[in-house]
Amino acid sequence: MLRDPRVEKWADVIVRYCLELKAGQWFLIQGNPLAYPLIEALYRKALQVGAKPDLRIGFPELEEIFLNEASEETLDWVSPSAKYEMENIDARFVILTTHNTKNLSSVDPSRQQRHAKARGPILQTMLDRSAKKELNWSLTLYPHPAAAQDAEMGMEEYAEFVFDACLLNYDDPVAEWKKVEALQEEWVQYLDKVKLLHFKAEGTDLKVGVEGRKWINCCGRINFPDGEVFTGPLDDGTEGVVKFTYPAVQHGREIEGIELKFEKGVVTSATATKNEAYLKKLIEADEGAKRVGEIAIGTNTRIKRFTKNILFDEKLGGTFHLAVGAAYPETGATNKSAIHVDLICNLKDGGEILADGKVFYRDGKFLI
Predict the structure, then answer these.
(1) Alpha-carbon span 99 to 32, nearest angstrom
(2) pLDDT confidence tier of residue 251, bands split at 50, 70 and 90
(3) Cα–Cα distance measured from residue 104 to residue 75, given in angstroms and rounded to the nearest whole number
(4) pLDDT at position 283, please?
(5) What average pLDDT does range 307-320 have in this prediction?
(6) Taking residues 7-16, what's their average pLDDT?
(7) Please, which residues bridge with residue 325 across strands?
(8) Mean pLDDT of the 27-37 span
(9) Three-state secondary structure of the chain
(10) Residue among 339, 343, 329, 342 at smallest CA distance from 214
(11) What's the CA gap between 339 and 342, in Å, rounded?
(12) Residue 3: what pLDDT?
């Protein structure tokens, strides 16, 4: 397992900055044995501030067995304890690792969607409580071989990539994330006044209505690493076509060459050069899956390459991403769905974004 002194610093940032964990809070830590060094460090830091850490150690490989072998009745079942936890915990931190990122690639998509739909209320509870500031939650990825292989990096190179993206090579990462927060706040305040965004790139001509929506400054508190600004569009405010640059990786399946067309906020055409049938299954998961739940601009310039992991890829500086499915209530958006699938478009090669007809972003850079 990876051992590095920066892991202690990582846990400290999570407790003090991401979650602002306090004495007496019920703190749920979710991960698996691959992430033990960070789990251990996080557990100690939580105890040191007087919080009450509660561990949920899982085994990702069991999800494949469940989805393949569970009865239909069991696919629809949701653990009462999971429901209770999401309604009552004060803080939650998820550490992502797996032995095999493709372990769900052969599972019947309809069974995946059925179970996701059953768990939809738990996702909505988390989003609603987060919007009301009743629940602080965050997640990260601990460097592990499967992720390094997907990114086409060696383990040491990948670990350095993760630490650098998280700003953990600085003496005081919290201070650095606060600088990110201050810079992005200027962009958020500008965007809060905008009514209509117009995204232009090769194969993309998309208008997104955002009037009255609140933009969120993502500066390391929920995703770690972070680096984006986002909001939820008006339900009927998305019009046009978008061609996504990078493949979407969903449940071990890579969907390449994705192109979506929208009319009055609804997907009217969804095509892909690889796994198109699976893309259509996602879009058909429920009514909310046909609409845009999030529109965002990636700002983390330390993430310089596509890695096939959405935690990093959606933060790529010089890109924007659109998510079909569930919206984040804190933006004022109301779209509900059992899915939330992020799709990324590069803007660094001639792309631009107009706000109410005025260009404010070109070639991957803000002009304001």
Answers:
(1) 10
(2) confident
(3) 15
(4) 94
(5) 96
(6) 96
(7) 340
(8) 96
(9) CCCCCHHHHHHHHHHHHHCCCCCCCEEEEEECHHHHHHHHHHHHHHHHCCCEEEEEECCCHHHHHHHHHCCHHHHCCCCHHHHHHHHHCCEEEEEECCCCCCCCCCCCHHHHHHHHHHCHHHHHHHHHHHHCCCCEEEEEECCCHHHHHHCCCCHHHHHHHHHHHCCCCCCCHHHHHHHHHHHHHHHHHHHCCCCEEEEEECCEEEEEECCCCCCEEECCCCEECCCEEEECCCCCCEEEEEECCCCEEECCEEEECCEEEEECCEEEEEECCECHHHHHHHHCCCHHHHEEEEEEEECECCCCCCCCCHHHHCCECCEEEEEEECCCHHHCCCCCCCCEEEEEEECCCCCEEEECCEEEEECCEECC
(10) 329
(11) 10
(12) 67
C-alpha span between 95 and 355 (Å, rounded): 36
The pLDDT tens digits for 167-213 are 999 999 999 999 999 999 999 999 999 999 999 999 999 999 999 99
- Tell me, rounded to whole angstroms, the distance of Cα 174 from its chain centroid: 21
Please say if the pLDDT value at position 328 is more than 50.
Answer: yes
Please report, as a single letter, which amino acid is at residue 239.
E
Residue 329: is its pLDDT beyond 70? Answer: yes
State the distance between the two ends of the chain, measured CA to CA, in whole angstroms: 44
Within its chain, how far is the Cα of 51 from the centroid? 26
36-67 pLDDT tens trace: 999 999 999 999 999 999 999 999 889 999 99
Q: Which of 242, 215, 220 is nearest to 230 (CA)?
A: 215
What's the average model confidence in pLDDT over 323-328? Answer: 96
Domains of the chain, CATH where assigned: 6-165 (3.40.1830.10), 180-366 (no CATH)
Cα separation, 309 vs 232, in Å, equals 22
- Asked if residue 1 has pLDDT above 50, the reply is no
